[in-house]
Specification:
145 residues; 7% strand; mainly alpha; 2 helices; 2 domains; rod-shaped; membrane; three-stranded antiparallel beta sheet
Length: 145
């Protein structure tokens, strides 16, 4: 029982995890498991020690709350950052894809234009040397003179 460690030392009392040390009257009492925080009738939070003797229960609660708050803030920031980065990378990928499609279409149009220019040039050369066939009858025979 925790009461057996009363009037001894805080370290002896807190070796048992279910015990609470109160500095006001140097007593070791059972930790009130039914309520999360010990009531002020048992011992004030600033004089209560649980787990370790060098920090009071009030400071322990504040420290745990701060650590839990920092962890929640860090998780929230990480989630928001990851969502922002994903959205940003997706939009960047979409922009790059659109840009590549535009360049591909431009190259295709330039290729068609060059092909048309080559055809016109070749037709001029064929016309010059009389090799251009009649477009009305492309399957006519060559005349031997």
């Amino acid at each position: 029982a925790c009461s057996a460690f009363s009037q001894k030392s805080c370290e002896d009392c807190l070796k048992n995890v279910s015990c609470l040390w109160c500095y006001t009257n140097n007593t070791c009492i059972d930790y009130p498991v039914r309520s999360i925080l010990p009531s002020s009738s048992l011992c004030s939070l600033s004089n209560a020690r649980w787990g370790v003797c060098w920090i009071n229960f009030e400071a322990l609660i504040i420290a745990l709350a701060v650590v839990a708050g920092l962890i929640l803030v860090a998780i929230t920031v990480c989630c928001c950052y990851c969502c922002y980065c994903r959205r940003r990378s997706r939009s960047r990928l979409d922009e790059e894809e659109e840009q590549l499609a535009r360049k591909r279409e431009e190259r295709r149009l330039q290729s068609l234009q060059r092909k048309h220019e080559r055809k016109l040039k070749h037709d001029e050369i064929r016309k010059k040397y009389g090799l251009l066939q009649d477009s009305d009858n492309p399957y006519s025979r060559f005349e031997n003179e």
